[in-house]
Amino acid sequence: MKIGEAQQHYSTQINELWNRKRELLAQKKEAQAHGGASQALLDELQAVSAEHEKMSAFMEEFTNYKTALQNIQAARQQGEAEAKSMQDLAKCMEISRRISNGDHVPPSDEEKLMNYSMELYLAAKNAGMLKQDKDSKDYDSLWEEEEGDTPPVEDNIDDTECTMEGPDLELV
What we know:
It is a single chain. The protein is built from four helices and no strands. It is mostly helical. The protein has one domain (3-144). The chain starts with a helix and ends in a 42-residue tail after the last helix.
């Protein structure tokens, strides 16, 4: 069962228990007004109350479980974004090194370096002007392989398989 389905299922169960508990409380109040409630009614009310408490405790655990999964997913996505940022930094440093050596890089890479850090770009260009010679190398873009990539699709926690099982309810 998926987490979204489980949450809906367990919410329905807890609502049914709550409604049954309210009905029994109303019956108890009415019976007390007419002389007293039967032992069967009191026993059923006590059993439904116990089941409702058990289900409420489970729903609290389930909510904590779902929140933990969401936090894990957010941390994973943040880690992926940080890794991408570090890859971009490494590429910018490599472009800066190449420019500083007087080598030629594609204009798109120079633009990426300018956008990343104008100071780093200017320092690399100034250093490169001092090293201009006929042995300079031509490099391909470091970002060419990524230009066609699509952004990652976000996972929906509700579509994740649920590994928690709800309590066994006797009255639902």
